[in-house]
């Protein structure tokens, strides 16, 4: 029961055609500036619609939506209903909120005055490895004498549990971590700030409900569990990762920070952009077969902005269609052993890379392990990995006919090590 | 500022000399039977001391300890103070509670009437790999042509993030998980219940406070962060693990369930049993060097009780001193990259094995990958891995002079797959 807002719908709030947050999007976030700082709001254009104010004014029925301060306890049905109410109030031809100046000034305020928080209290963070070109590039670099993909890659969505406590909302800086690294020529490891700080361009989804431990979920249930999507920057320290990751996987090389975009984009908003994923050969086992398309045509871009530059430079452009495993397949795999999925779980896709150098989702790949430095055109600065003061900006959007449904940005500046 | 209860201390509650919970222990748990089911209590002998009742009666100063329903928000200082109050009330020569029959009947009730909950709301679960004999045995089995330990093993406490949502308290059954496995001779994996369900004997500690993201902790701070210790059974599906774990580590082979013992044993209670760990060669990097001893002389035992047996059979006996990396080193490594430790984090040690066959902490090792079945003496049943209906019972204790400080048990019965 999707609620899809027509391409020609207009709001009384003016939104340019290339803006990420037209009335067709209406994503959810958290951050009202005044009385209810931790409550849920909806983004439209450069404005924030405060749901709590609508509730106070009787425009959202309280008995149906008592949980506007605990976003992750809403299921997709609630979100769809609230989004429909917001749409009705924001339609160009509805005077109810539009012409009530007093209420409007309270309910709709500038994004510049909003203090945006992390949208969901994240209980668990799982990171997949579903970007096949990334996995293949890493294989070529680190296991040059073997096939680039391991035998399990096309049978299951490889993934691991990450550190939930250090997931941050866009805008928060990331502190360069210290840790153990070992040069190939050194006899022993040394301790100090990572010299290979990297980003990873990913998409993520939140779950909004849970299952009972021991009762596996099915891929057909994904829509019921899904809260929505964000952009994810999975900051990585490559030198620490190389040294620590055998045999139990990434640990401190990732746990120092992960950044997400603040607006949770709904499946309803993304409906027009659903596409078939790549042909999967071999055909996955039955529990990984979805009836619907669970890939999305989302353009993705990464930019770097050093302290000397006046504006960011795009260093990578790709598309979420490059994922081998879909979000639904990730969900189905995660839950098939009976583990209990919970409201507020974040599932990230793994690094999304295209097949060409300018489309890779990490510096590891873009510079081919530091061999080919990126040059910042404005300043002539070179980058193999990130330096202190660099800001990484990721963005993503779906291009509709005359409008975009976007994710805004996930941004983070690198601070020097303590 | 430890509060160590003398070996000759006696309570007016009679506790046998080989009991795990004499007045020298006084561990914390959650589960009052009546009015405050989620509140903190203390175990003594076969009785439960209800702290909430003591608070109501004015025997615990409310202004100092307002948080008896949120155990993990107490720091070690609070716990030490409350434990001291409990000790005073339970001393054989203190009539205050002993002779107040009405209050005593409310404040002290039988363990048989308590509904024991998970002691801490677990935000994150990290599992280390600090049992060197286990790591070495696994290396011998899975990489027979290489040195059994990887080069990083003696430089850092290898670990990974586990799934916190599926951590259960002792007594809850574990459902045999389904998942992908692949026989060496098969062309493709198949899906079904694991055929290699195993246990792992581990110790774990909880943290009771957090640090700010980006500000690393120091090994010298461990005492301030430490809430206490429990036994951990890290259930594992070996066939799923073999197929999935490259290159990002264990995932579904572990996330279906982890069991912990319900009583959080304090550092104060364990003080008399602190011992030096094994000599570490090479000497660890500086951030991993502790001033104090952070190993403990804890006897550990695993038993199996099949449905046909009238009583359990001990299948492994070892000691927590077999850990290569100490709890403090695990803590220091976890936090050195600036990730934010949080109240309620659970850090498990990894499987603890001795050097001899009867001292191994997993069936994988005890049966040497299924080669040498264990025989249940009472029934003649054989076990390579766990079968449906089997109950695994782990226990651990420190032997003092005339008393024990113990952990009770962590038990779990295997249910058939869905």
Task: Give structural attributes.
alpha+beta; 2 domains; SH3 type barrels; 18% helix; 11 helices; seven-stranded mixed sheet; 418 residues; Fumarylacetoacetate hydrolase, domain 2; five-stranded mixed sheet; 25% strand; homodimer
How would you describe this structure to a colleague?
The structure is a homodimer. Chain A has 11 helices and 24 strands. Chain A is an alpha+beta fold and about 425 residues long. Chain A folds into 2 domains: about 30-115, SH3 type barrels, CATH 2.30.30.230; about 125-415, Fumarylacetoacetase-like, C-terminal domain (Fumarylacetoacetate hydrolase, domain 2, Alpha-Beta Complex). In chain A, strands 6-5-20-12-13-15-7 form a 7-stranded mixed β-sheet. A 5-stranded mixed β-sheet of chain A has the order 8-24-23-18-19, with no helix packed on it. In chain A, strands 1-2-3-4 form a 4-stranded antiparallel β-sheet. Chains A and B meet through strand 6, strand 8, strand 9 and helix 7 of A and strand 6, strand 8, strand 9 and helix 7 of B.
